[in-house]
Amino acid sequence: MNIPMLDLSEQYQHLKGEIYEALEQVMSSSRFILGENVKKLEKDIAKYSHVAHGIGVANGSDALHISLLACGIQPGDEVITTPFTFFATAGSIARIGAKPVFVDIDPKTFNINPGLIEEKITDKTKAIIPVHLYGQAADMDPILEIAKKYHLAIVEDAAQAIGAEYKGRKIGQFGDTACFSFFPTKNLGAFGDAGMIITNNDELAEKMRVIRVHGSKPKYYHHVLGYNSRLDEMQAAILNVKFPHIDEWNELRRKKAAYYNELLAELDDVVVTPYEEENRYHIYHQYTIRVKDRDALQTYLKEQGISTMIYYPLPLHLQPVFADLGYKEGDFPESEKAAKEVLSLPMYPELKQEQQEYVVAKIKEFYRKSS
Ligand SMILES: *Cc1c(COP(=O)(O)O)cnc(C)c1O
């Protein structure tokens, strides 16, 4: 059996007719930049997230970068985030010339540990970027409290978490802004790069709309230095077809996760299944376990036709590009430990029960052979 990490073909076959029609409409209209499709998606995702504004941008990384610019982050400022995330979270900070200041994770949820944030705050600290990793909301209440106390902006990195909830509320409505990525492998994926920022703040929304069009307002008059970073109509048209399915797809991911949990239960001496914090609606962008002998297990599964991934093998404080930040091994023990133990299993809404059973049978086989 061959089981990929993610298989988008069934979803595509199901939506093909609608997608062709949507693309045909864009092509016939000859309106390719910031037209009706982008407007509709912005409106629908803002409404879904219970905020006033959506701002379509070129990708999730730009969403973070533009959010920080709009929040007034400048060279020399410090922005607190987790070292156990995709590079872009901290890359967006460094691209401004600001300094990423890392805080270790909670080993159970893999999200930033709010109890360790306050000791990292200095008079240069201007913002916090909590990441809702793997599709589970970070612990927002204590983070919001700290942000209020020290007057910090919050930019939610929601790239992996559209539809996830924290205490009954959709993520994305807690921060000053929140950032989505529609990279093809995300839960809501385009057919190329795409992203969106949402915010409830009218002033920030206006700033971000200006930044994404070269800082131009009115057209050809430039008061701020912006970028060319727009979500294009073709991608928005595809996303408009897919977005109405997001809740159903997330619910299916949760079912697959529950089935993996059930199948893996008897391996509890070697496999730690994902921990769902109380009052969270986890949407399992990734189904990530901790395991013994991770690398050998991954190789074994690969030989059996099963793809798995390591998100992420090297925490950001140890990345060569951040060497000048002065961090060293041992600074964030939980992130470093997680990087050595995590393994993400195949996960997508169309994953079949037999496939899940095969994955878990092969994991069992590996530990039986190696014991
Ligand atoms: C995917 C991702 C991003 C970046 O999104 P792109 O659209 O690929 O630029 C940022 N942060 C996290 C946590 C991500 O998973």
Relevant terms:
11 helices, Aspartate Aminotransferase, domain 2, alpha/beta, Aspartate Aminotransferase, domain 1, seven-stranded mixed sheet, globular, 371 residues
Let me know the CATH homologous superfamily of the largest domain. Type I PLP-dependent aspartate aminotransferase-like (Major domain)
Please tally the β strands and state the result.
Answer: 13
Overall geometry comes to globular
Number of domains: 2
Cross-sheet strand order for the largest sheet: 1-9-8-5-4-2-3
CATH class bucket of the largest domain: Alpha Beta
Mean pLDDT figure: 97
Topology-level CATH name of the largest domain: Aspartate Aminotransferase, domain 2
Bound molecules: pyridoxal-5'-phosphate
- Runs in which pLDDT lies below 50 for 5 or more consecutive residues are none
